[in-house]
Amino acid sequence: MILAVFAVEPLAAEQIVDQRTPVGWKHLAINPPWTFFKTYVMRRGFLDGAEGLAAIGRAGGCTVVQEPGGAAVPFLPEAALREGPVDFVLSLAQLQSLFQTWGMK
Q: What are phi and psi of 64, to 5 degrees?
């Protein structure tokens, strides 16, 4: 799962509404895919999680990665393993158990 949070200052949002700039179908059809491609694919944004995980590990946090062989997209856990440090490499079933255990506390 990927979670992204975008925030706009209330004043900036009000200014956007006040401008009443019309948004055409081209803007809605082209800008979102282009922005995704530019920021996620060209800049290898899909590897950001590996850098974040490495930062957590360097700061002394516990890091857990799914086994690449059992992952739907193996290059993501492989990137995390390359960035390191990784404390545990678990199967999907083991991850589910771990998360259930954490959820009970």
A: -135, 135
Full DSSP string of 27-87: HHHHHHHHHHIIIIIITTGGGHHHHHHHHHHHTT---EEE-GGG-SSTHHHHHHHHH---S
- 3-class DSSP state for residue 93? helix
pTM of the model: 0.54
Decide: 51 and 83 in contact? Cβ < 8 Å.
Answer: yes
What is the mean predicted confidence (pLDDT) over 23-47? Answer: 71
Alpha carbon distance 50, 52 (integer Å): 5
Contact 85, 65 (CB under 8 A): no
- Interval 41-93: pLDDT, tens: 666 666 667 888 888 888 888 899 999 999 888 888 898 898 888 999 999 99
The domain locations on the chain are: 22-104
Q: Which helix (H) or strand (E) holds 102?
A: helix 92-104
Question: Please, what sign has the CA dihedral across residues 1, 98, 75, 46?
Answer: positive
